[in-house]
Amino acid sequence: MHDGGKSRDELLREVGRLRQELAGRAALDSLIAGTLGLIKSEDSTRDLLRAVVILIARETGFAAVGLRLREGEDFPYFMTTGLSEEFIRLENSLCPKGGHGQPARDGDGGPLLECACGMVIQGRLDHSEPFVTDYGSLWVNSNTDLIAERPELLERLRGNCIGSGYESSALIPIRFGTTTHGLLQLEDRRRGLFTLQLVAGLELVARHLALALSQRQAVEELRLAGADLERRVSERTKALGESEAKFRVMANAIPQLAWIAQADGYIFWYNDRWYEYTGTTPEQMEGWGWQRVHDPAALPAVMAKWQASIATGKPFDMVFPLRGADGLFRPFLTRINPLLDSEGRVVQWFGTNTDISEQKRMESELRQREEQLQQSHNALEDRVRERTRELASRNAELENFFYITSHDLQEPLRKVQVFGERLRLEYAEALDAAGKDYLKRMEGAAARMQSLINDLLDYSQVATGANVFAYADLGEIVRQSAEDLDRLVEMTGATVAIEALPGAEVDVVQMRQVFQNLLSNALKYHGRNPPEVRVSGEVLSDQGRETVRISVADNGIGFDPRYKDKVFQPFQRLHGRNAYNGTGIGLAIVRKVVERHKGTVTAESEPGKGARFIVTLPVNRQA
Predict the structure, then answer these.
(1) What is the pLDDT of residues 100-130, one digit of tens each?
(2) Which segments constitute the Histidine kinase domain (predicted)?
(3) What is the pTM assigned to this prediction?
(4) 3-state DSSP assignment of residue 622
């Protein structure tokens, strides 16, 4: 036994383990040094990565080494050694394709990479697992034992590594900052080949590779950006020359006079139109020579405004006269705009002068025509006002005539009615059949005359009556109007349905006339079936102005829609007196009352399909 208590065999095994560890460290140091040497070389990226893969396989002794590199959204194998062609074919892509042929996506819309390689690249491993490092690498010394202990892991793996018999496996991300360039993959069918020291060394190699790839990528991007910038500068220079040539061609083609000045206002170029109009030469016009074609009276104001634009960099807009080659001054609209550099400084001025003499002439003619039109309009308004006064006077006279005539007819009519009643009561036995028939006709005619006189009085009083407007419940007014017609409702067997109606500012007495006439018509003009009348309403709002719309609909005989306006005219009847009694004044009263309320009334109907009268009134007459 040794003094320390260890046997000779134990000491030999310890020495062997230390020698193996030293050899591993030496190989790892050689791997890291070799990798750094390759990175410092001027080799292409492809040659660099090929050499690194071969170096890793040689220094670690692993049977298979692969390097995946980003290609779009996928990470296929870029370089391998020891992996079979069939294995590479099965494992090359990490992006599973859906039924539509596109890669599967995660919740953020990114590609969902498959298998353990995909989880390492996308950082989706659980760092609390014993086979996951803080750097995010995955290493296993026995895939068989791991799956036996954790069979649920198979659900997240393709299984080709295990199916190929690989036991020792490591997946090292090639990551710099937040950018993952690819992945190192080591596989071997032997067990127990990994140590924490080896994994840490491989992670260091991966870090150096990631840094080198990032540097090379940045250099390449900078080179491409420089080349692109050089190309764009060349193209811009060429385009600028072509643009200037095109600009001068265009400036010479436009009908306006045009010119270009330096930032200080010094004019160095005029188009051909300028020289044609002014009859001057380039030598005469260069610099400030343009002042010689200006009206001396207007020149001080032009100079003051032009100097202000030069000082502030603001556009110039002014109308002033320019002298032509014929010696005549014509008005021109002059506009000058600054051309700015990238920092907003004025580098040039571009000006145009547009001859507006024809426009001025047309404006003068237009003003004269407007004055004539205004005079004609005023005269027309005077005539309209005069006609309106005449019409109002005639309407007043007509209404007064109706009123007076109605009153004057009352007295002789009462005598006819009184004497007719006496004949019927006191001399009925003295009258033969013909006499009784004549008496009956006389009394019927007198009754119709009385009804007509009453309607004429109502019609004339619509405008002459007192203005008694107040806010009222239209539903209550309609119900009272319907109660006044109870006898007619009972005689016809009618049904009158009155829905909830809004309120409005109205003359209650006159509004009862409106609904009595509308309901009376609905009850009167019915066919074989009993009348069915429905009264409904709603409140409408238009630009803050509220109106009520009341509808009175029936199932009566209706009328031809051609007469929808005629029915509101006085004494207009669509049916004979023998078929339906009436004077033809009722709907005329309706329209007159509604118009007095600043409202409207319309009718809708078809023969045999009933009629519908719509009354629209302002809720507030002052609105």
Answers:
(1) 556 667 666 667 677 888 788 888 888 888 8
(2) 404-621
(3) 0.39
(4) coil
